[in-house]
Design brief:
single chain, mainly alpha, ABC transporter involved in vitamin B12 uptake, BtuC, two-stranded antiparallel ribbon, 15 helices, globular
Length: 330
């Protein structure tokens, strides 16, 4: 039976946990495995819609700044006396607006999404710092004093599972259904594989980015809400370290950086793989800087592997030429 990539990722995830468990037995404790996901599950929450963007042939590197902007905006609204029942929907709306703004810039300028989202990364990050300064939270001190009902949310359980993990499972199910079991997904893959053919097929090539980048914006806002609830503080730097792990999870999960292919389930498993890698390295005493370097190295290796797989025929031809030359020379 052929082993698919999702099964391979699941096996790698189990082996990773067993390896770290052999070094530190605490890693094998089921409660630790479940509740430690709250430390990194936001990687998966933003990596899932990012996967769809990559499948379409786009990219969004502004999501970290969007998280910081949404987080600090939530803190400012709470500080101004706005009830959380209103502040939370407004935070989600802000995330949506950030995503739609990215899509509009890409649509109307025709500039590469990487360049556009690089610009909005600094725009949203600067806006977050500006709001933080206006609120009196100098530097990365953040805004605290959130209601207990809100800060307790990230620590609640449903059927014995932490709420952030349950949210991640539901978000994964949602994206899996729309990507792999619906018309939206079929159109998405076609646009990523051949935008010109998609236009001839009368698909909404210009409208698709609004849905995709909008979902990244909303997911970033959800991640901001979860992180503010978990840490009890709204800071402008909350999403700063999420971009690289999220990109790694999307690409490791099977998303083709050139567009046209990807797997939601693969991204979900890869997010857990990357998250437990960071968790395991911390538990065995490896500094965070080394963990970040390993995540970056993993991304480079995966991208190189994907590139080689896409050009495997060229590699085979080149290898045959080398072998033939050696044979003739002998």
């Amino acid at each position: 039976m052929k082993l698919n990539w999702e099964s391979a990722l699941l096996i790698l995830l189990v082996l990773e946990i067993l390896l770290f468990g052999a070094i530190n037995p605490r890693m094998l404790d089921i409660n630790m495995l479940l509740f430690s996901t709250s430390d990194f599950i936001c990687i998966g929450i933003v990596a899932l819609p990012l996967t769809l963007v990559i499948i379409s042939g786009g990219i969004d590197i502004s999501l970290g700044s969007t998280i910081g902007l949404c987080a600090i905006a939530l803190g400012v609204m709470m500080q101004s006396g706005l009830p959380m029942s209103l502040a939370v929907p407004l935070t989600l709306l802000l995330g949506l607006v950030c995503g739609l703004f990215n899509a509009a810039l890409i649509h109307y300028t025709g500039i590469n999404p990487l360049v556009i989202t690089l610009g909005t990364l600094y725009l949203y990050g600067g806006g977050a710092l500006l709001l933080s300064g206006m609120a009196g939270a100098t530097g990365y001190e953040g805004i605290g004093g959130f209601p207990d009902s809100f800060t307790a949310f990230a620590n609640l359980t449903v059927f014995g599972l932490p709420v952030p993990l349950v949210m991640f499972a539901l978000i994964t199910l949602f994206f899996w259904v729309i990507t792999h079991r619906g018309r939206f997904g079929r159109h998405l893959f076609l646009i990523g594989q051949n935008p010109r053919a998609a236009r001839y097929a009368a698909l909404s090539v210009n409208g698709m980015p609004y849905a995709l980048y909008g979902m990244v914006g909303v997911a970033s806002a959800i991640a901001a809400l979860v992180m503010v609830s978990y840490f009890g503080s709204a800071r402008s730097d909350l999403g700063r370290d999420l971009l690289m792990p999220a990109l790694t999870a999307a690409v490791l999960g099977g998303a083709n950086i050139y567009g046209g292919s990807g797997s939601v389930l693969g991204t979900a498993l890869a997010a857990l793989l990357v998250g437990y890698l960071q968790q395991g390295l911390q538990m065995v005493g490896i500094p965070n800087q080394v963990s970040s370097a390993l995540s970056g190295a993993l991304l480079v290796v995966v991208v190189m592997g994907r590139s080689l797989s896409l050009h495997r025929e060229w590699v085979r031809t080149a290898w045959r030429r080398v072998i033939s030359r050696k044979t003739i020379g002998a």
